[in-house]
Structure formats: structure tokens, C-alpha cells
Design goal:
By secondary structure, the protein is mainly α. The chain contains twelve helices and two strands, in the order αααααααααααββα. Helix 4 packs antiparallel against helix 9, helix 6 runs antiparallel to helix 10 and helix 9 packs parallel to helix 12.
Length: 369
């Protein structure tokens, strides 16, 4: 197999497969139609829910004495659905940013020395995420069916509500597929440096005294390029990150508070447990992929440190200066997705947010007494 055939295999195996990615890349009309309809369905769903609430004789209100869990969820539904409508439409508007990144990714993975290993990493995680997406879809369809059939919360539904809710579920699943796929591509860019430095360490151990100054300088240049494209893709997902850690945290708070209440029936508790399980899975998997970009960028520091411990490394002044500059750049810990452009989504950020969410959720029953 020649190098051109290998490049073609790598390119095909790492080609974006999500519906929204195909829509942004304008691969076919059907993906663009699905993209448009799922985005509009979020706006229609939010509008219908708000109209239904205002059509009641009781005011929506914001006083603590009249604010209930149901109204909290209605408000969160409206804000979350409206934000998702804007987010999914913005994917189309900001499409050139995504196209530019995909072109960079395809070029780097085809021409890089570790392209096959990167492609293997992408394919492995694509299979895992495909299973997670199917599982999430089955859970949501089952929960929606039970909510509409058993109606444990004694709510009033019509066919428009049901159709729009299923369209929104489809849109949310497709968005998750798009997020996971793009995060895997970003992760594979940083995985390259791990593979490359491990390979360089073996080469140095096998050939003592090899001058690696120019190689380290090239790697540092490539690392700067990767950071630059990561920063370019960050604004593309900024509203997505805010949705994930903002509105979904509000949902989680409401669900934790409702589970902590004492006046729930068995069917209501089962629905709430199902919702909690789904949202916990959604937040966990999405958070994992967001934070893993930052984690892999920081783990390069350990790989470089291990490389410097090689006994056969030629420690010239120029080489050590390049290595120190490389380590200095990695240690800044500012690579990855950001929350509202203020702080990097890292493991520490997610754990802090989880503690705050759990604390507020457990305190809600006392507030609504």
C-alpha cells in the first residue's frame, strides 16, 4: 500500500459523519433540511409551552411564594429551547470556522507521521459515542412515551406538543453527536504529540547522541498551530458550552429538588429518576469530552518530561532551551473550551460546578415550603 492510498483511507475513516457536520459542509440537501427543521422546532416548542402557560388563569409570576418546580422547569425549558434554537442556527452562520478547522484537521492527520494512530483513536471513540447516542435516544423515547401515556404529573398534552417534543429530542441528540465528534478531532490533535514524543524517545534511546533540536522546534511550532485552531473553534462552541453547564445545571437542580420533596408518587419518582439519569449521562459525557481536550493538552507536559529523562538525549543548550520553552507554554493551562470566554473547562471547573449544583438542589425543598 503506497502513501496516497494510506492517506485516502485515513481521510475516509476520519470524515465527519454527524448530520450537523454534513449540513455545515453542505454535503447533501437532506442534512441541511434536518438541521433547519430541528432548530426551528426548539423555537416553536418554547413558544407553545409559554403560550400554554400564559393562557391559564394563574400568572407566571416570579415571587418565591408562587414559584413552583413546574414553573421553574417551564422557565428553564423556554430559556434552554430558545438558546438551543440560536445555537443550532449559529452553527450554520459560523460554518466557515468549522470548515476551516476540518480542513486543518484533515491536512494534519493525512500528512502527519502518526496519522494512522490518530485515525485509530478517532474510530475507536466514534464507535463508543455512537453507542452512547443510541442509548440516549432510546432512554428519551421511552421516557417521553411513559410521560405521555401514563401522565404522572397530570399535564395536558396535544398532538402539537408531542410532535414538537420528539423533534426537539432528535435535535438534542444530533447536537450531542456533533459535539462529541468535534471534540474527538480536537483530542486527536493533542494525542498526536503523545505518539510523536513517545516515538522520538525510542529513537533517542536507540541512537545515542542524535541532535533533536530541529525536531523539538518543529513540534513546538506544530503545538502552537494546534492551540491556535483550538482557540478559533472555541467561539464556535461558546454558546453550546454555556447551554451544557448553564441551563442543564438548572434542570439538574430542579430535578434534585423534586426528588428531595416528600409528596411525590411512585410514577412521578420513576420519571424523575429517568430524567436525572438521562441528564446526568448527558452532562457527564459532554463534560468528559470538553474537559478531555484540556486534560490531553496538559498531559503533554508529562510526556515531554519523560522524554528529557532519556539517558541518551544530547543535552545541548539550544535543545534544552527549546524543551524549556515547550514546557513553559504547556504549563500555562489555557488550552481548551471556555465557559463564556472566562475560564477553561477543566476537571476542576466541572467538579466545582457539580458541588454547587448538588448543594442548591438539596436546599430547594426548604425554599419552596
Amino acid at each position: 500500500m503506497d502513501s496516497n492510498e494510506l492517506k485516502d483511507i485515513i481521510e475516509k475513516s476520519t470524515k465527519p459523519s454527524s448530520i450537523y457536520a454534513k449540513s455545515i459542509l453542505r454535503e447533501n440537501i437532506s442534512s441541511q433540511v434536518v438541521h433547519l427543521f430541528t432548530s426551528i422546532s426548539f423555537l416553536l416548542y418554547a413558544t407553545v409551552k409559554l403560550i400554554n402557560e400564559f393562557s391559564k388563569n394563574t400568572p407566571l409570576g416570579i415571587k418565591i411564594s408562587t414559584l413552583t418546580y413546574d414553573r421553574c422547569i417551564i422557565i428553564a425549558n423556554f430559556l434552554f429551547s430558545t438558546s438551543l434554537f440560536a445555537t443550532i442556527l449559529l452553527y450554520k452562520y459560523k460554518g466557515p470556522i468549522y470548515v476551516e478547522y476540518i480542513n486543518y484537521f484533515q491536512s494534519s492527520i493525512k500528512n502527519g507521521s502518526c496519522g494512522l494512530a490518530q485515525a485509530s483513536y478517532v474510530n475507536k471513540w466514534q464507535k463508543i459515542n455512537r453507542f452512547i447516542i443510541i442509548l440516549q435516544l432510546l432512554i428519551r423515547i421511552t421516557m417521553r412515551f411513559f410521560e405521555y401515556y401514563a401522565n404522572p404529573f397530570h399535564l395536558t398534552y396535544n398532538y402539537i406538543d408531542i410532535i414538537l417534543s420528539y423533534m426537539c429530542e432528535l435535535g438534542l441528540i444530533l447536537e450531542q453527536q456533533f459535539i462529541y465528534e468535534t471534540c474527538i478531532y480536537l483530542q486527536s490533535n493533542f494525542i498526536f504529540f503523545h505518539f510523536f514524543l513517545d516515538s522520538l524517545t525510542k529513537k533517542v534511546n536507540e541512537s545515542p547522541g542524535v541532535d533533536v533540536y530541529h525536531v523539538i522546534k518543529l513540534v513546538r511550532h506544530m503545538h502552537s498551530h494546534t492551540i491556535e485552531f483550538t482557540r478559533r473553534i472555541d467561539p464556535f462552541f461558546r454558546l453550546t458550552v454555556f447551554n451544557t453547564f448553564g441551563f442543564l445545571s438548572v434542570y439538574s437542580i430542579c430535578i434534585i429538588g423534586m426528588l428531595s420533596a416528600t409528596d411525590q408518587t411512585i410514577s412521578q419518582i420513576l420519571i424523575l429518576i429517568g430524567r436525572a439519569t438521562y441528564f446526568a449521562t448527558l452532562i457527564f459525557v459532554t463534560s468528559y469530552h470538553f474537559a478531555r481536550v484540556n486534560y490531553l493538552s496538559m498531559q503533554i507536559c508529562n510526556t515531554v518530561h519523560g522524554f528529557t529523562l532519556s539517558p541518551n538525549l544530547a543535552r545541548s543548550i539550544d535543545t534544552m532551551n527549546e524543551i524549556n520553552l515547550f514546557l513553559l507554554r504547556i504549563s500555562r493551562d489555557d488550552v481548551g473550551f471556555t465557559f463564556a470566554g472566562l475560564c477553561v473547562v477543566s476537571v476542576n471547573f466541572i467538579s466545582s460546578l457539580a458541588i454547587i449544583t448538588l448543594t442548591i438542589g438539596l436546599a430547594l425543598p426548604g425554599i419552596f415550603k
